[in-house]
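Protein in question quoted for reference:
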Amino acid sequence: MKKLRRLFTSGYIFTILFLLVEVLIVIFFEIGADTYIFAPIIQQNPSAAKILTTVNQVFVIARVVAFVLAVIIFFRVINKYEDPEFKVPWLVFLFVFPLATVTFFLIFKNHGLPRKETKYIRGYLKELEPYYERNRIAFSKYEEELGRARGAFQYVLNTARVGAFKNNRVTYYPVGDKFFPDLIEGLKQAEKFIFIEFFIITDGKLWGEVKDILIKKAQEGVDVRIVYDDLGSNGTISFSTPRRLAKYGIKCYKFHPLKPILSGVYNNRDHRKIVVIDHKMAFTGGNNLADEYANIIKRFGYWKDTMVKIEGTAISNLITTFIENFDIAAKEITHLSPFLDFDYPSFEEEGFVMPFGDGPGFYTNEHMIGEQNYINILNYATKKVYISTPYLIPTFGLMEAMRNAALRGVDVHLIVPGIPDKKLVYKVAKSNFKSLLKAGVHIYIYTPGFNHMKTALVDDELGFVGTINFDFRSLVHHFECGTLLYKNPCIKEISQDFQSMINDSQLVPVDFKLGLFSRSICGLIKIVTPLL
């Protein structure tokens, strides 16, 4: 009831109604073009015959145009460079619902950004280029130390165009309860700038405390910038938050604001979680800025999520990742040199740290960086793998990487929620259990509640903490981020955390299977998941 009330008072309800009308018009024309539903009406109401006959003629024309476009789109889809699992649904729907499919294809066909936004990406990449070259040269010195992990790091270097760094201090937070107190204390130490980026910000105890600190810091002259996802925070935070914060000198923007027009941009959400405080520290991981993530309020049992705090040169990667989306939201190009030309302190800690960002389509000339990162991690494994994900609707390539790891003798442990936040999505996730179990993957259900963490650990030396779910939303459409870790002291803590979770989880039996009805529903849903 509370969410419904927020929806009506936030201003989004009118946008949703307009979008619904646009969808209904498309469906209406699809039905009309296929069935000539106006014929009986014309016969019974001669006075309306002229108008309705004209409308019916429009339907016929629409059908012809849709057929021609459907043929063109058919060849466009067939020849497009992308995974077949994205092609098949479009081809099926082209033959079943040609007019509606043509319409939605023209809107949602690209897994990327609108043209008007690419200029900010181009500006960002131009600013990033000299730092990428510097990082590329530095990376060449690390090949021997990285050993077999070199390939996983070099892939991120060449695609996300950020560097790998030594002598950083990394703090691992196994739950939000431990992360947020450090975040609050870190914000109080800010002297120059604070960058904040979240998928969800929710009015409550945490946001109230953070907001008060940010206002105070802005009044002290600190450069405070915030970007949050408009759809992710729909109904959770006041609609007028950016305007109110602007009065205190805080630059706050909604990422891809909802507008009453059908657009593929609604697929491209900002799912990143980043906080950078001066050049002192940076936080990233799976936690959003909401009370349930700190278990201040209870939603879906105990909320389990992970974060890392980075101190040292690797902060620069998160600065550039933040600025990328901030510039898109603010419609400006930020010069990177004031933030990147800094002499960071060196910490006497072993290992490598590599935060990076991912995005939809070919926004840095490569796509699905997050998916390939997971595949690289799985391919590295020779002994054991731990993976935790709240949503298990992976691409075919990622599914096969997990199965292949188990089939070649790697001990693969996969942890999913015990209390899901989306029951239907959870049902689809369970439909993937059988194939994984058959290959030898051990699947655990985290009984205390909802493990929202997107964390992986391989052979107790190569780790990943990030925002990237095992689903098409994260792997294809969203802006995401994560951190590769190699032989860092915190790896031991991550391993202990996974062991603790397994002790609190229930092992899924090898003979697990869904009922016939559930399998049928999941089969239908899987047809459209690559398009969503």
Remarks:
- Residues 385 and 404 are 12 Å apart (CA to CA).
